[in-house]
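Sample A.
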Amino acid sequence: MSHDYPALAAELAAKLGEFRKEIPDTMKGFGQMSRAAHVDGALDNKTKELIALAIGIAGRCQGCLAFHAKALVELGCTRGEFMEMLQVAVYMGGGPSLMTAAEALLAYEGFGGETAGG
């Protein structure tokens, strides 16, 4: 299953905008949790995004692939860093995670991340 991950991220962002209007307290709480989780501390934000994407792979969450791959490209994640995260995600999740890891790589490349050999 291949997706246009930039389009998927845009579609989901629009729906999440509806959530902010219709269930604002839930979205405020989630937003506060997200901001707190992304503050640099013992782990920097890029490392936290790599972890989040690995969990998204394990959970087979297409939206997670889109949002976290985009964030990683914006944070300057190299292909080498991305591939090592995929390696750990596959190790922990087996064959199903291998397939979702391939989709995560499509998302990373779809947002402008480095391609093989380049």
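Sample B, a different protein:
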Amino acid sequence: MAVITQFVVVREGVEKMTFTSKKEADAYDKMLDIADNLIPFIQKAELGIDESLSEQLAFYFANHKDELTNLLKGVVPVNSTASKPNPAKKVPKKDTADE
């Protein structure tokens, strides 16, 4: 018989997620804390969005907290696709023999 250790994140009596490592469970729990704090912040903006969309935004921001923190600090994100040429967009070369 195998023994499996599981870490369960429970919020308000509801099991949210199960993990095999404490580190992952703690990170998820922290993300939920951040999202819970962001929901009233977003709703305070009076953007006319419903509670469900406020929750979705809060979870998105919480899941991307490192990128969001950098943006709030004024750090320009590095866009890896911007530096690569797009082969579909070829600019036709001008024929200089016709001039």
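Observation for Sample B: The radius of gyration is 23 Å.
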